[in-house]
Amino acid sequence: MSINEEVNKRKTFAIISHPDAGKTTLTEKLLLFGNLIRSAGTVKGKKSGKFATSDWMEIEKQRGISVTSSVMNFPYMGHQVNILDTPGHEDFSEDTYRTLTAVDSVVMIIDATKGIEAQTIKLFKVCRMRGIPIFTFINKLDREGRPPLELLEEIEEVLDIETYPMNWPVGMGKRFLGIFDRHGKQFVRFNGNEDETYIPYQDLDKPENQDLVQNSTFQETEDELALLDEAGDQYSLDAVLRGEQTPIFFGSALAPFGVQTFFDTFISMAPAPTARKSTEGLISPDNPEFSGFVFKIQANMNPAHRDRVAFLRVCSGKFERGMSVKLARTDKPIKLSQSQQFVASSRDTIEEAYAGDIIGIYDPNAYRIGDTLIEGKESFEYDELPQFPPELFKKVTAKNVMKAKQFKKGIEQLVQEGAIQLFRGSNDESYIIGAVGELQYEVFEYRMKNEYNVEVMLESIGERIPRWLKTEQVDRTMFDERNLLVKDREGEYLALFKNDFSLRWFKDKHPDIELVDLFEVN
Ligand code: GDP
């Protein structure tokens, strides 16, 4: 098979959602389609929303395939599906955002009873900024949720994206009858107990379907649908692929209902890997020379195995185990010899991979987040990964002042690695660490102690809203504890606002100062 054919088979995506919207449940159903697990319930969603590694190891042993909590891949309908896990709950961190730089599309799950929630907005923004196509699955139709039209309006307003319902539900909860599959021009009837019947539109008139079409809920929905046909947005695959329109699917991951129709349609519409921006222009995925970039580095927390794994998204050419590549940042050759694997826990060796695939490579302390690896003579680097806005800030000091040197070294290395973001107090040069989730601090503290032999003290500054200051002259008197002034790694000033109120107050008072949030910096 040619590189081009291999690339076009790949569908690499992540599922984003607020905790409890149903990511674990939906993922499990998709794995069932891929025959990765035999029956639902094999993979239990743990409290943290992660798959238990032991479950995976067991599955791997049983079936001899590579499934891990970071990347799940399986063949489906002639495609090669790669699902990347986006850690949520307590594991929410910058890695969750960075994962989104390694996918070609995203499935956004929304709980029909709740609508859009905080974490969904954050993750959505990143997808939007990068123009990633977003497919929406509105979940839990088996429960009494909010009216579908209201949910669509909320998506359009809060997320500022066009919607196109690929299907439309008839009733909800106890009155749930099924969905109009607008795309497939059929009615999918909900029979409960994992059973669904597909009725082509032209067969709805048949006598056996009269109980359905005479139902008042069904008739009301038909009117609603007519309205949508007339007044709703027009479907445009181009707009979807540009990330400007999101196709909406209603269903229930648990029932399950509408999952198969959703997945089949999604897989047929979702983009295969496309060209990526680099310092030398666009690099096509079927470029014969291998290239890729590191989007995540995982340090082993076990002191007995102090090794690290770099997660690489293949962007072009063919990866082969043992190949020699070049680290673009340093221009130094590196042999990708041993330990190519999907994740550290599985130790599964892979022999080859193509654009769209994710591989884990042994990191001899050489890589940084965002690094480009290339096979050819030409040198280029893929676009830098954005910095993602931290929300939590803590002042950090060494417990023992005599350890200042190791302290600095440790922080510098962990910052380079992308484990944390570092800011300096504008007055006292104090070290302030920004993170997206608490977990990052735990990892930071642990690694400082175990790898650099420094115990640190963390003092919370609390949740803050960071904004870069676009102005020639920074006047320190404008700032105090409420609007803390700090500098980033490049020496650029930013204010950490205590809350929305102080941000607005500042804007009113200093309309001439342009405030930029991290998303727009890169
Ligand atoms: P995650 O945190 O996004 O991974 O969410 P889970 O998949 O763990 O689901 C959270 C809870 O919602 C669990 O109790 C699920 O059983 C439940 N759930 C998921 N999908 C559905 C659904 O379609 N209908 C109903 N009624 N419950 C669901």
UniProtKB/TrEMBL annotation:
Gene3D superfamilies: P-loop containing nucleotide triphosphate hydrolases (3.40.50.300), Peptide chain release factor 3, domain III (3.30.70.3280), Translation factors (2.40.30.10). GTP binds at residues 17-24, 85-89, 139-142. GO terms for cellular component: cytosol. One of its GO terms (molecular function) is translation release factor activity, codon specific. GO terms for biological process: regulation of translational termination. It comes from the Bacteria. Keywords: Cytoplasm, GTP-binding, Nucleotide-binding, Protein biosynthesis. The keyword Nucleotide-binding applies. Residues 8-274 form the Tr-type G domain. It holds the Pfam family RF3_C. Belongs to the TRAFAC class translation factor GTPase superfamily. Classic translation factor GTPase family. PrfC subfamily. This is Peptide chain release factor 3. It comes from Sediminibacillus albus.
